[in-house]
User: Fold this.
Amino acid sequence: LCAHANRGATRVGAGDSEGLAETARAIEELKHRNYFYLGIPLVNQANSYLHLGSIPDALRADLEAADWMRTREPHRLGLALLEVASFEFLTGAWDSALSRAKEYELTSGVDATLGSVAPGIEARVAARRGDARQAGDLGAEALRRARTENVAQTIGPELAESAWAALTLGDRDTASSLLAELLDIGLDPDVFL
Assistant:
């Protein structure tokens, strides 16, 4: 059943929206059987909703995943917390996003895999609230961590956000350099900006 949940999410990622129904059926059956490791299928369902453009449904699925992982899979809780924080940021629930980012750092540690995401979210909130200096400082920390992690899914957003913060502070040279780095590693800035 886990394989069906994951296959459904893969189908959605490949453009087949019917994969979402396969994932949902598998998750319901896993719940019915009281399957212990339900967190990752729920996170995959959230990502399927995101791929289909439904941030509220993605947030709902990730909140369910976080609740599940908090009691049954605490070693995986960080992943759900970061996704919830990201979706809350996108919906404008910035204070809640900041709380989730802090909870991630408290439960997972600042040196954890994906540790750049929490200060990255803090930087994005600071930037949207008009505090370019704090956004730049937090963004620099997020970028430092992302470079250490060397994971494309974290370094891309952090390079883009740091470039935006540099531009906001009037530092066009740094912004150009960061965008060039984004292109050099093969990532499209339009995806992140």
